[in-house]
Every structure is written in C-alpha cells, then in structure tokens.
C-alpha cells in the first residue's frame, strides 16, 4: 500500500476525530518518528507539515506502525482489537468513551469506585427541568451530554440560592433550540469548594513512575471562563496551571485516581486519564472523567516531560515503564492565544449555508453575512516582535497553526491560534514569563486571559494547604518519614510472623 514507513524510523499513527494534540505529533516527528494522521474531521492544523492518510485506510496502515495512538475516541473498540493483534496502542474502548460522554454513567462508576459524588439528574425537557428545580430548591449546575457535549456555551453554573438565575436561562435555551437536536442534559448538585483535577498516564496495570519507582500524577487547575476573574461564558479552556508530583504526596490522587484502578483495568485503557473534582474540607467530589489527551493540558505536558515522548508512550502502550523518566517538577502554565471569532465557532459548514443558500435580502441580512465572513480567522498571518528569541520558540506550540507560503498562519476559521507555556518555582513567576512571551506574538485582535497571578490556584491555595491537598516542604518531609516508618513496621511484622512460624515448626519436630 502507499505511504510505506521507512525502516530506519519508528512509525506512529494518530487516529483522531478532532486532532486534539497536534503539537505532540509534531514533537514525535522532531524526535525522528514517521508520523501519520488519520482524521475523521477535516482540519488545516499543521497541514503540509504532518503526513495525512485517508481515514478509511487506518486499520491497514496501523499494522505497519510501531505505535498507534487513538487520541480522542476508540471508534467502536478499534484500539482494543488492534491491541489484541499485538500492536502497541494508546487508547481505550467504547466504555472509555461512555465514561466521558454519558455523565450519569460516569458519575455512577466514580461512586462505585468509592469516590465522593454529587447528586445528578438527567433531563431531555426544559420544562421538566424547571419544575424539578422549583420543587427541589438549591444550587445546580447545568451540563450538556452526549453529542452536544462539545458545545461548551450551553453549560451554566447557578449562583442564586435556589437557582433562580438558571431558571431564567432555561427559557432562552428553549427559545433558541434547534429542532431535531436532542436536549441531552444533566442537573448536578453544586458543591461549594475549589475545582482541582488530577491526571496520570495508565499502562494497563499501574500509573507512570519516576526513576525511583514512585508513581507520578499531574495536578492541575483549569480556567474555563472567557474573561479574567472568572467572568463571562464557559469555554473549552483559557489556561491551565499544572505540575507533576509524586502520587504519594497527593491527597487528591488517593481520593480519586487511586480508587479507580479496578475500573481502569476493566475498561482496558492505556493513556492519559484525568479526573476533575470539587475539593472541600470533607473531601474531593467527582465532577467528570477525561480519559484522553487533554486540551491544552497535553501541550503543557510537552513543557513538563523531559523524557523522549516516543519512548514514554511506547512503554505506556506496552504495559511497561520508562526506566529513567525525567520531568520538570516546577509549576507550568499553558495558555491559549485566541482571536475572532472565538468563542463563537465560525465553521466551513456555516459558510456553505450562506454561500449555497439564496443571496441575502436587505441591509440586515447583508450585515449578518458580512459580520460572519469577516470574523473568519483562517489564513491570518502571525507576526513576532524583534525580541522574540530561539529560546521563546521552545515554549510555543502551534496547536492552531499551519505553515503556508513561507509564513505561519491561523489554520482554521475558529479563532484558535496557538498555545504557549512557561515554568517556574512559583505560579506567579511562570505567569509573568508567559505574559511576556505572549506579548511578543502579534495577531490581529488577539487575546488571552492575563490574570495568571490571580489564578484558581492562588484563590484555593490557603484552604487546600489547610485541608492537606497542597503540601508544604515540611509536610512532604514528614510524609516521607511516615511512609518509611510504615515500611519498617510492615517489615518488622513480617519478620515476627516468620520467626513465629519457624518456632512452631522447630517445636513440632522436637
């Protein structure tokens, strides 16, 4: 078949619906891998830079590869079947997909694993939802599910005592709803606390480890609202504060990921597995599973991981560990840089509706069409100030770009430009460095949230430290001593048991 892989290179195939982590595949290519993309949806991101194969040839092509990555979906258990054939595969199964898309089922699975969960109720009718809220009372969070899950602007977090603001929002949703689209929502009990997530790569048996055999996890704080200060509508993500820690030093790990080991084995998963939570004084309450490459978290991990990615992912896919995994333990901030029309999505499908439909009539329709077309970001060129350095390039990830006609330009019509990351011992220092970096990149009408010194980490730090979710250096040292003491106690108990058995055998013989 075409596109045969060179014998001297490691062949990597990414099978994807949306292409969530383009910078990861560019990194693998820079490491010397022969990377190919099999994409169900069309995108111009890194077009001409990363090789593409027809989506319907993916299964045959996979057989020629050293590593196959199912990035965001299993495509009806394909990843499981290829793994059974002896291929090295990152990915999950239909059950893994269900964990994320079916919120009710995901909540049920988390509860079965022993994780604290909020109450959750499914609805397909806005009127029934409003009636329930009025009768039940209290604060609720509205979340979309299934096929409409990716439309982030539909979610709503109530702030009024009995969700009066949500009750005002529901009629707007109903009025503007598109006929034929299923109303697939859940109401989730609002838990007051701090949003905090935990993730780690699972190899089928255990989580990723450092050179000393300690399991590792990545603690992260998401920032979804559009504007600084947590204002505006909820987006996919504006920026994330991340850091890698030892699992034994993470209380959140012990209350969530650690309890989900039986579930991960049962659903036959390999790859990055994340649990988002609301942390309270009473414990961490489950919000959602993300059993796939996170956005923009994966680009942040490119900053944190120092071990070659092919070596790392191959080990995870094969159920083993990298012998000497290297990482940066400092705080990392990864941020999107956007332009118009984000957060509105200007898609080619919508353009076709205008172009193939009847011409606009009257000034209002002409204004609507012009406004729509002028907000299309595809092809906008990216400029860099004179003080932008080679070192700066190491912290920029072209997650929304392509290289064409000798210039970097925005790949798609949706306003996603790129992500950038910086690390430092303190979050605010990483934020200052990141603001300085983003200020050197010039995009017409470009924007990002620049409140890195007032992040969710800063807002939660004091209480999370008080509750034991953020450890001081003294607490880490005490934790190490307690673990060592516990090991010695276990060993002494084993020795006593051995002496007791030996003594019994000797007396029996005499």
Q: Could you outline the blueprint of secondary structure elements for this entry?
A:
Blueprint: E1 11-16, H1 22-30, E2 34-39, E3 51-52, H2 58-62, E4 67-70, H3 78-84, E5 89-90, H4 94-101, H5 103-112, E6 120-123, H6 126-136, E7 140-144, E8 156-157, H7 164-176, E9 185-189, E10 194-202, E11 216-227, E12 231-246, H8 251-255, H9 261-266, E13 271-280, E14 283-290, H10 297-304, H11 309-318, E15 331-338, H12 348-356, H13 362-374, E16 383-384, H14 390-393, E17 396-397, E18 401-404, E19 407-410, E20 416-424, H15 427-438, E21 441-442, H16 456-467, H17 473-509
Parallel strand pairs: 1-2, 1-4, 2-3, 4-5
Antiparallel strand pairs: 6-9, 7-8, 7-9, 10-11, 10-13, 11-12, 12-15, 13-14, 15-20, 16-21, 17-20, 18-19
In short:
The chain is α+β, with helices and mostly antiparallel strands. It has 17 helices and 21 strands. α6 packs antiparallel against α7.
């Amino acid at each position: 078949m075409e596109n045969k892989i060179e014998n001297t290179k490691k062949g990597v195939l990414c099978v994807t619906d949306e292409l969530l982590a383009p910078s990861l595949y560019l990194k693998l290519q820079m490491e010397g891998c022969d990377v190919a993309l099999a994409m169900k949806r069309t995108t111009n991101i890194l077009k001409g830079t990363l090789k593409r194969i027809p989506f319907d040839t993916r299964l045959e092509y996979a057989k020629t590869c050293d590593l196959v990555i199912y990035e965001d979906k299993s495509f009806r258990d394909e990843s499981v079947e290829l793994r059974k054939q002896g291929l090295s595969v990152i990915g999950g199964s239909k059950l893994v997909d269900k964990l994320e898309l079916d919120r009710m089922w995901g909540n049920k699975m988390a509860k079965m694993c022993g994780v604290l969960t909020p109450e959750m109720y499914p609805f397909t009718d806005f009127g029934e939802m409003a009636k329930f809220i009025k009768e039940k009372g209290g604060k609720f969070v509205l979340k979309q599910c299934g096929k409409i899950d990716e439309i982030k602007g539909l979610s709503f977090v109530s702030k009024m005592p009995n969700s009066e603001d949500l009750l005002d929002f529901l009629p707007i949703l109903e009025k503007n709803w598109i006929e034929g689209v299923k109303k697939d929502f859940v109401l989730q009990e609002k838990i007051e606390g701090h949003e905090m997530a935990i993730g780690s790569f699972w190899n089928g048996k255990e989580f990723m480890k450092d050179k000393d055999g300690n399991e590792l996890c990545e603690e992260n704080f998401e920032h979804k609202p559009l504007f600084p200060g947590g204002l505006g509508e909820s987006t996919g993500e504006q920026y994330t504060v991340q850091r890698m820690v030892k699992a034994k030093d993470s209380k959140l790990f012990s209350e969530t990921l650690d309890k989900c080991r039986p579930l991960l084995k049962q659903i036959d998963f390999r790859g990055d597995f994340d649990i988002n939570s609301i942390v309270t004084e009473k414990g961490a309450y489950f919000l959602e599973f993300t059993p796939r490459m996170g956005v923009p978290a994966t680009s942040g991990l490119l900053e944190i991981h120092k071990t070659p990615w092919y070596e790392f992912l191959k080990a995870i896919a094969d159920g083993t560990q990298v012998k000497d995994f290297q990482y940066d333990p400092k705080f990392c901030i990864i941020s999107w840089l956007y332009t118009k029309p984000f957060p509105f999505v200007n898609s080619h499908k919508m353009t076709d509706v205008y172009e193939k439909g009847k011409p606009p009539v009257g000034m209002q329709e002409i204004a609507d069409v012009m406004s729509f077309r002028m907000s299309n970001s595809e092809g906008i060129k990216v400029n860099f100030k004179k003080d932008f350095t080679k070192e700066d390039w190491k912290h920029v990830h072209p997650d929304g770009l392509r290289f064409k006609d000798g210039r970097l330009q925005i790949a798609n019509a949706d306003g996603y430009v790129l992500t950038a990351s910086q690390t430092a011992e303190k979050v605010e220092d990483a934020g200052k460095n990141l603001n300085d970096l983003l200020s050197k990149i010039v995009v017409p009408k470009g924007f990002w949230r620049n409140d890195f010194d007032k992040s969710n980490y800063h807002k939660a730090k004091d209480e999370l430290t008080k509750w034991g979710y953020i450890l001081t250096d003294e607490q880490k040292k005490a934790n190490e001593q307690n673990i060592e003491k516990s090991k010695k106690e276990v060993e002494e108990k084993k020795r006593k048991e051995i002496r007791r058995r030996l003594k019994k055998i000797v007396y029996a013989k005499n």
